[in-house]
Amino acid sequence: MKRQTGPNRNQSPAEEPFSYRASPGGRRVLCCGSFPLSELAKKFGTPLYVYSAAALRERSWVLDSAFAGVPHTLCYSVKANPNLSILRLIYGLKCGFDIVSGGELERVLRVSRRAAARVVFSGVGKTAAEMDAALRAGILMFNVESESELALLAERAARLKRRARVALRVNPHVAANTHPYISTGLRRHKFGVPMTEARRLYRWAAAQPFLLPAGVSVHIGSQITEVAPFSAALRRVIALVRELREEGLRLTYVDCGGGLGINYGGQRLPPFPRYAERYAQGLVRALGPTPVHLLLEPGRVLLGPAGALLTRVLYRKTNGPKRFVVTDAAMNDLLRPSLYGAHHRIVPVEGGGRSLETVDVVGPICETGDFFARDRRLPQVKEGELLAIMDAGAYGMSLASNYNSRLRAAEVMVDGARAKLIRRRETMRDLLRQEI
Ligand code: LLP
């Protein structure tokens, strides 16, 4: 699909990948770059995920620049959005990848076999088969999360005669002010090994012929918008790195994980460059004079604001005093509101002054939990109109399912003068393919 109108050069795509513009008919229409979302909906149907390549590039560049003063690699967290076209774009920006499964490894290898050299493998339940695949691919680092996993990795690496670079993911017992389901840095969480056990495990690992202790990793949670918990965790990790280096271990890497949050609406965050700078400063200060290569595993902060979910209003209905707007997208397309009570801004694609009303925006699925907004003040919309659910680029499509036998949405990437289909809409055939 070709560009309709010229780009607005005064605007930073990182801040506003989606903005209203005057359409030829004089109406104001929400656009991604120069593409009116109404045209994308007409061409590709709804529900539709739309991503801005410009915003993704710029956000990655801004974050990368914020760390310019220290050796570092951004390892994009594939789980946030694993679409191959997105991975390809990110690989082109010289980023690495944070993976948590053999499936994610396979995706990265499809982008380039050479990308393996920039892959870190996290997760509490790696299987022997996943370890073997990662060892064969020659990934940068295994972020190991338990003693048993370390023992299995030693065995697999010895069997394949491949050296595994290892970082223990430590649990720093640092609280992050975020939703309990995505908080990971406390003792009561399943993640990481206790700091107190790390030394013993590193010593053991160093004695294994096919393990090479090369770093320490930490990840305290997701959608964290304050810097303090990140620095607190990193200070603990750095203290450990110093101790281990004194014992003679040559640890090059410190993996700070991901977790930097975005503004879903309501939060007061500075513009992205200043926000990224503040985050980087917090981490670099916590590093102190210790020379290390920093690894970062950002997901949401790169992709979240760069994507929106486009949906059509099927019906309006009332139930006593309650007003409902029923959309063709549902919790199977975007689970975050149902699962975390997450807030996503919702805006009509067609702009212009209209009066506000209080509505629930809900999907067609047979669960009361199938909602995108409850008691939300929104501009009055008509049946057949389009809505955009914002900040859905991360953990939108990646959490989508076929619940209620619904076909998963299509995905489109807007890149300059092109709007490219990067995942076609599922068909009934796709849906039934595995069944016997
Ligand atoms: N590294 C590790 C080890 C992780 O577990 C995660 C996210 C990340 C990096 C990336 O975190 P980010 O920079 O994207 O915050 N589904 C939830 C988020 C789950 C995050 C899981 N781990 C949501 O929609 O909010």
Q: Sheet bearing the most strands, described?
A: 9 strands, mixed
CATH superfamily of the largest domain: Alanine racemase
Cα gyration radius (Å):
23 Å
Structural class: alpha/beta
CATH architecture heading of the largest domain? Alpha-Beta Barrel
Bound molecules: ligand LLP
Uncertain segments: 2-11
Which topology of the largest domain does CATH recognise? TIM Barrel
What is the number of beta strands? 21
For the termini, the CA-CA separation is 38 Å
Overall description:
This protein has 436 residues and is an alpha/beta fold. The chain folds into 2 domains: 163 residues, Beta Barrel (Lyase, Ornithine Decarboxylase, Chain A, domain 1), CATH 2.40.37.10; 232 residues, Alpha-Beta Barrel (TIM Barrel), CATH 3.20.20. The protein is built from 12 helices and 21 strands. Strands 4, 14, 15, 16, 17, 18, 19, 20 and 21 form a 9-stranded mixed sheet that branches. The radius of gyration is 23 Å and the shape is elongated. The chain starts with 17 loop residues before the first strand and ends with a helix. The N terminus is likely disordered. The structure holds ligand LLP. Ligand LLP binds next to α10 and α11.
